[in-house]
Amino acid sequence: MSNQANNNSFKMNIGGPSIILLLTVLGLAVFSILAVRAAYSGLKMARTSASAVSGYYEAEGIAQKAEYLIKEAIEGTPAATADTAKDAIAPILPGGVQLVSVDADRIVYEVPVNDNSVIHVEMTSDSGLSGLKVTDHRLVVDSQGGYSGSAFEINIIDIN
Fold first, then answer.
1. Are 64 and 111 a contacting pair, CB within 8 Å?
2. Which of 24, 91, 116, 157 is deepest in the core (most CB within 10 A)?
3. Which residues contact 41 (CB under 8 A, 6 or more apart)?
4. What gap in Å lies between CA 74 and CA 106, rounded to an integer?
């Protein structure tokens, strides 16, 4: 008789499926948050990379323009000494270019790429300053992140 009393009453067992559904929804929410964070990190890295690449190519363009202007200045006004060559070159260089040294057969200049790196260019000649050729062209990184003081270089052209 007690079985008949239980069969007539309505009981709903939804505890187990409800817990599984809640855990599934919670898991999906956590994974969606992680996916959004990963996408944001990828976007941030892509923007940083794009900024670095555009800065490099802008500096590379300035370095090539400086090379052309130096060759034109030396050919246009034959320099008897390194000092007269330096006086002829310094005013015509594009903004940001640092003339490091002018010797009897070598001109060295640098173009800043960002706060941590420069493009270092050396132009040399066997016969004074006429017929200058680029003999060293490289990207020099002074410090990167936590590696302060441990500079590394990337050779852009290999002359030898």
1. no
2. 116
3. none
4. 12
- Give tens-digit pLDDT for 30-65: 999 999 999 999 999 999 999 989 999 999 999 999
Comparing 17-26, 60-69, 93-102, which segment has the lowest mean pLDDT?
A: 93-102
What is the reported pTM?
0.69
In the block, tokens 């940083």 appear at: 48
Q: Could you tell me which of 117, 111, 120 has the C-alpha nearest to residue 155?
A: 120
First to last CA, the chain: 104
Residue 95 is predicted with a pLDDT of 84
Where are the strands (E) in the chain, listed by range?
Answer: 98-102, 106-112, 117-124, 133-141, 152-155
SS3 letters across 12-27 = CCCHHHHHHHHHHHHH
